[in-house]
């Protein structure tokens, strides 16, 4: 966590994001909305010291902001946000926190997520939906694991593709001629990130803050639930 915080820690952040993944799924929001939400939360927490009792309020207000920025048809009503918080906060408190966050971020809500890069790269290599969803699972894990924030979004996207190719036993997990041309990364550059991603995948069952993500990717629209299948494999 940011040195700014005196009352919340990384585990509390993980619990918040685990809950937000459930809320995001419940409201059937766009994938990018989740990434914007997390980006807004982390940037705000790097600037403002908050009490743990207000952490969920920051989270739901950030989700509301992200919905207004990204969604066209699925912006949740404020009363629904009050409900999902189990009425821990009022409508006025959520709207007030929304204003505080936007003001503190100076109205700068633009961010580039790994998902944007993943969508571009996978279109270039014509990746099928099943493998794409496995990449999605991997990059959404990085939202919760704070240590992955040290990597650039483009690097995380590349590492997810590389790891999926390793999982599928692709003879060329990183086709230099094709992938380096599209991503500007060579295999040697992405391996450290892919290794951290692999460790995360193989230890996910031991982490309580990943339960919502596991449930989400168990659903049929996400093609498969990969965490049990690959947790013991030596991939890298």
TrEMBL record:
| BP GO terms, sorted | cell division; mitotic cell cycle phase transition
Q: Do you know which InterPro entries this protein is assigned to?
A: Cyclin (IPR039361), Cyclin-like_dom (IPR013763), Cyclin-like_sf (IPR036915), Cyclin_A/B-like (IPR046965), Cyclin_C-dom (IPR004367), Cyclin_N (IPR006671), Cyclins_cyclin-box (IPR048258)
Question: In its UniProt entry, what is this protein called?
Answer: Cyclin-like protein
Query: Which keywords accompany this UniProt record?
Result: Cell cycle, Cell division, Cyclin
Presence of the UniProt keyword Transport in the record: no
Its organism's taxonomic lineage begins at: Eukaryota, Sar, Alveolata, Ciliophora, Intramacronucleata
The Swiss-Prot or TrEMBL record annotates one GO molecular function as:
cyclin-dependent protein serine/threonine kinase regulator activity
Ranges of residues in domain Cyclin C-terminal: 112-226
Q: Per the similarity annotation, which family is this?
A: Belongs to the cyclin family.
Does Metal-binding appear among the keywords?
Answer: no
**Start and end residues of each Cyclin-like domain:** 18-103, 116-199
